[in-house]
């Protein structure tokens, strides 16, 4: 890719995706509420507290000693429908576009495989759909797929072995085969090490938008991306679905300063008319003062990260006013949220006591909550 920065203001409002009024209310059957609302002012209302399955039933960490991180192949139809068995609202997954313009579900930039003792890598976006689907388990009975390896963050290359495997899938297939009541958080995946041409970004986003337009029907959809220009472009190319900007919240440093803090994330959202932020949870715990600033900007706030697999950390976020969490331990966290947050809220509402309905089993005074918020930045440094 040529090193050419994108000037989003130069892109016309293409409205690639037709308006679908039914999809503007992203209803979650788990709540007695009006659902998520995207109105003409581009605000986004999240009902109560969302639980979102990370790459479906949870991401794979091959070197983990926790069997839950290797239970089901991530980003597959099996993983998505396994997550749908639990009281969650959305699944999150990663979309890239093959060289022959097919949106597929895959997280990493490269696929690793082995032939005759030699390990080789292929960039996902440089493969055709047919080539992409040749890796791993095959749908056709008796057909053997190419071996599938994965490179870990520390540079090791391991066999991608999980307890229950499944084949790769396309975005269109995901819409067709996944429980229709489950919302999709579609992460628009781009390589951090490439500065993309504007025309290329627009083309990729239009290809993805076309599939969403054709297959989404009434399914709740959220777009998200770590790429600031892509996030702003998908908002400019369509106005049917809300767009969230993904950020590490300052826990990592990037050349693009827009990715380096929650304050910069707010600017990206305000400049591009986005509806919310998805932050690494440590970025929020390390800078809890950003939460009221995000709320004052009328933005929603979701989080992701390992701490979201800890029930107490999730409930703390609810108390802080965060709107939802992306989690790997779908069963454990969804049930914990139901027990500690959702059931008390619904019980209070059924009793007609709105004040009771705003409380959870974990109740703190304002003074105690203030103390905890001051303590959290110290805790996460250790």
From TrEMBL:
GO terms for molecular function: glycerophosphodiester phosphodiesterase activity. Residues 49-337 form the GP-PDE domain. It is an enzyme of class 3 (hydrolase). The keyword DNA damage does not apply. The keyword Methyltransferase does not apply. Its EC number is 3.1.4.46. It holds the Pfam family GDPD. Keywords: Glycerol metabolism, Hydrolase. It catalyses: a sn-glycero-3-phosphodiester + H2O = an alcohol + sn-glycerol 3-phosphate + H(+). GO terms for biological process: glycerol metabolic process; glycerophospholipid catabolic process. InterPro entries: GDPD (IPR051578), GP_PDE_dom (IPR030395), PLC-like_Pdiesterase_TIM-brl (IPR017946). Belongs to the glycerophosphoryl diester phosphodiesterase family. This is glycerophosphodiester phosphodiesterase. It comes from Gossypium tomentosum (Hawaiian cotton).
């Amino acid at each position: 890719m040529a090193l050419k920065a994108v000037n989003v203001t130069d892109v016309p409002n293409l409205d690639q995706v037709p308006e679908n009024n039914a999809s503007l209310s992203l209803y979650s059957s788990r709540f007695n509420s009006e659902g998520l609302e995207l109105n003409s002012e581009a605000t986004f209302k999240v009902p109560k507290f969302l639980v979102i399955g990370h790459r479906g039933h949870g991401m794979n960490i091959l070197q983990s000693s926790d069997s839950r991180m290797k239970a089901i192949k991530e980003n597959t139809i099996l993983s998505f429908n396994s997550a749908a068995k639990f009281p969650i609202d959305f699944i999150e997954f990663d979309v890239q576009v093959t060289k022959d313009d097919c949106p597929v579900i895959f997280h990493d930039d490269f696929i690793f495989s082995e032939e005759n003792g030699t390990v080789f890598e292929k960039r996902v976006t440089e493969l055709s759909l047919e080539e992409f689907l040749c890796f791993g388990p095959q749908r056709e009975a008796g057909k053997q797929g190419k071996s599938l390896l994965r490179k870990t963050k520390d540079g090791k290359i391991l066999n991608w072995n999980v307890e229950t495997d499944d084949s790769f899938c396309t975005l269109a297939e995901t819409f067709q085969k996944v429980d229709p009541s489950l919302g999709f958080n579609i992460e628009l995946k781009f390589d951090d090490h490439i500065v993309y041409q504007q025309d290329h970004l627009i083309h990729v986003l239009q290809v993805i938008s076309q599939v969403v337009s054709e297959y989404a029907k009434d399914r709740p959809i959220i777009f998200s991306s770590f790429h600031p220009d892509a996030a702003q472009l998908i908002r400019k190319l369509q106005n049917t679905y809300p767009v969230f900007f993904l950020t590490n919240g300052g826990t990592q440093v990037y050349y693009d300063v827009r990715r380096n803090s929650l304050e910069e994330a707010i600017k990206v959202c305000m400049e591009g008319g986005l509806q919310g932020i998805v932050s690494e949870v440590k970025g929020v715990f390390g800078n809890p003062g950003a939460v009221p600033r995000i709320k004052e900007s009328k933005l929603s706030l979701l989080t992701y990260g390992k701490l979201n697999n800890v029930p107490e950390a999730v409930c703390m976020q609810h108390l802080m006013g965060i709107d939802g969490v992306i989690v790997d331990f779908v069963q454990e966290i969804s049930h914990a949220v139901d027990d500690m947050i959702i059931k008390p809220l619904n019980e209070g509402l059924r009793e007609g006591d709105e004040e009771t309905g705003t409380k959870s089993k974990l109740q703190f005074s304002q003074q105690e909550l203030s103390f905890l918020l001051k303590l959290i930045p110290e805790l996460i440094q250790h």
